[in-house]
Amino acid sequence: MDCLEITKELIKIDSSNLEGANAAIDFCKELLSKNGLEIKLIENNGFKILVCTIGEGEKKIILNGHLDIVSFKEGQLTPNEKDGKLYGRGSADMKSGAAAMIAAMIELKNEKLPCKVELQLVTDEETGGNNCSKYLADMGFRGDFVICGEPTQLGIGVQAKGVLQVDMEFFGKSAHGSRPWQGDNAIIKAYKSFEKILELPFTKEKSELYDCPSINLAKLEGGDVYNKVPDYCKMSLDIRFLPEQNFEEILRQIKGVVGEKVHIHSVNDAVKTKVDNIYVRKLSESIRNVINTNPQVFGQHGSADTVYYSKYDIPAVEFGPSGANWHGDDEYVVIDSIYKYKNIIKDLILNLKNN
């Protein structure tokens, strides 16, 4: 099977749950094994991980792809070609990228490679990646450069914002709803604090790839009846901070506004790969070699499994085929971009000897 056929077969597998995601791993294991590649299967907390390594040398390039998908509507597990696009859940995010990586490994297996190439197929990226990519990185499955095959329109996502999610508590004084001036409305206190947070120094900072961090007022929970001034409110923020920023400093500034009733829900590091990293430059050269276009190099606002390798100061990027509407209706991948993506990966690997 070529990379398009592999993509179609993967789309047919309902990998929105653990059992199905593991079934997708089994499919890839059988395919790679039939093509003479040695497979290492790892299981962590019930999640299957496939690792396949080819080549020799001191350097190692990691190709990381996830096979799990988000929920889908009826008909989205039936791959459908139309106007040069392949529709189906996971077509762009990111079964086409994983399929191209598999095809590249098969086509490179008999080549004399200048480095090791390690394919990592994982099953929990959509739910955080803790059981697979994080586990792999922590267990030493690391290299010199990591490509996560998220859909990027054949551009290179070199950085990603960090994540700081916080819950804040606000206390007021209850009163009858007809006399709000006799109470202290905790919801209003929360929102006024939110407006002050939007003016803090960290919100005005920018970097090479980002104009500013982002702050989402995600939840506001308070009040229970119409005729009572609420005396308690919980406000939750989702903050995506710049790679150069420190979440502890952001937290300090927020506490200066709302006091100590700030609780961290979640923190994830930013991805800090440099635009001028040698592997990013090599990847850019391969993109130009294959499609004769200078790639867009940008920073992602969300994060992917790249974060787990960046933690160990390994340059990691998001780079994948072209498509649209992932996590939404009518998700598709541009068919021609799957083949281009596979050839770019091969060109990168084969030309690393010039590094």
TrEMBL record:
Keyword Metal-binding in record: yes
Residue ranges constituting the Peptidase M20 dimerisation domain according to the UniProt record: 160-261
Source domain of life: Bacteria
Membrane-spanning parts: none
GO terms, molecular function: hydrolase activity; metal ion binding
Alphabetized InterPro entries for the sequence: Bact_exopeptidase_dim_dom, Peptidase_M20, Peptidase_M20_dimer, Peptidase_M20A
Keyword Iron-sulfur in annotation: no
Keywords in alphabetical order: Hydrolase, Metal-binding
Identification of the protein by name: M20/M25/M40 family metallo-hydrolase
Organism the protein comes from: Clostridium aciditolerans
